Amino acid sequence: MDDEHFGSCLRRAREDRALTIGDISASTKVPRSAIEQLEAGALSSLPAHVFVRGFIRSYAKAVGINESRPLSLFDRAVNAKTEAARAEAASPVVDPTLAGVAPSLPGGVPVEEDETGRRRGLGFAVFVIILVAIATITLSLLLRRPPQSGEGLSMTRPASSPTMVATADVRADRSA
After folding, report:
1. What is the pLDDT of residues 101-131, one digit of tens each?
2. Under a CB-based contact definition with an 8 Å cutoff, are residues 30 and 55 in contact?
3. What crossing angle do the helices spanning 68-90 and 49-63 adopt, rounded to 10°?
4. What whole-number distance in Å separates Cα of residue 140 and Cα of residue 142?
């Protein structure tokens, strides 16, 4: 009886009264899926603990048992899960490559480098190349020297250019 969890306690009480999960769902207004998860004792798939405690109270009332026993079993299960998570978080994580052990699957099959790692490296390389190209273009534009001897600084032509003189001569000939 010590290995009993809150869900089996509730299920046994429901079965003793010959009620179905649908009957409990209708009387408690708790979704059928939540009742099935309660009876299975699936803590990870249940909503927040405050809601589950309310579900357990409603369920216990619907089957006519005292709520203290299933609630204490639920609290014990939550505490055990929390302690297990805390213990797992406290254990050191060792990189298999640093420890000199090749990573492998449970059957002893060695794990090859996964495809996402290769793609991530390729994406990073493309990013660096684009960044270098942008920096090169920017620097070349900023460090460009002005043209030698002032060439290209003015767009107007001097008045004594041969094309203008020739044009003036042609106009003079036409007007005469």
Report:
1. 655 666 665 555 566 667 778 888 999 999 9
2. yes
3. 150
4. 6
